[in-house]
Amino acid sequence: MVRIRLKRLGRKKSPFYRIVVMNKRDRRNGRPIEELGYYNPMSKELKLNKESLNAWIAKGAQPSETVAYLATLAPEDGSLIQLPKKAKKEHLGEANQVKEKVAEEAVLEDVVAEEEVAEAEVAEVITEVETTEAVAEESVAEVLEEAVAEAEAEVAEVLEEATAEAEAEEIAKEETPTDA
Q: Per residue in 29-66, pLDDT tens?
């Protein structure tokens, strides 16, 4: 795979970069396929041949994150420009904003997933409650029917006993002689 990346040159603590097209597996300071320009972070100078850059991207070369950012700052004609000193910090701010947006989206996805799980649990509980209520209503109806049946049976027994006692009293009155 071909990458468009920075090749470090310069002394210690005084970096200077060439923007090069290289095989991804080659070492950082190896022989490039093509040099597209340079970037000096100390003096904030940038020169980049955008025509060649776009041609390599069209062929499938992948620019590094830094090269992609520098390409947005470079003019179309490939001339040398002086970058403002806060350009890199703004780039980092944009990267942080992107990271924050991705993190927020992940949190929102988690919240949505948790809400779906909670809704499913609520639906299960509602179903259980409805089933329990139906069983309870059936149980109440059965208990009421049993109570009514028992009450009717008791009333029937009391009536039979009262009838039997009344008949026994009548028989006893008939059998006892009256002295008149």
A: 788 898 999 899 888 888 988 888 899 999 999 999 99
Could you tell me whether strands 2-11 and 62-63 are parallel, antiparallel, or unpaired per DSSP bridges?
A: parallel
Q: What does the buried/exposed string (b/e) look like for 103-122 if buried means 16 or more CB atoms within 10 Å of the residue's CB?
A: eeeeeeeeeeeeeeeeeeee
Instruction: Please tell me the distance from the alpha carbon of residue 39 to that of residue 7, in angstroms, as a whole number.
Output: 10
Residues 65 and 47: beta-carbon distance below 8 Å: no
Complete domains list, the chain, with CATH: 2-83 (3.30.1320.10)
Nearest to 6 by CA among 14, 17, 15: 17
What digits encode the pLDDT tens for the residues 99-153?
A: 788 888 888 888 888 888 888 888 888 888 888 777 777 777 788 888 888 888 8
**Sign of torsion over alpha carbons 155, 160, 166, 172:** negative
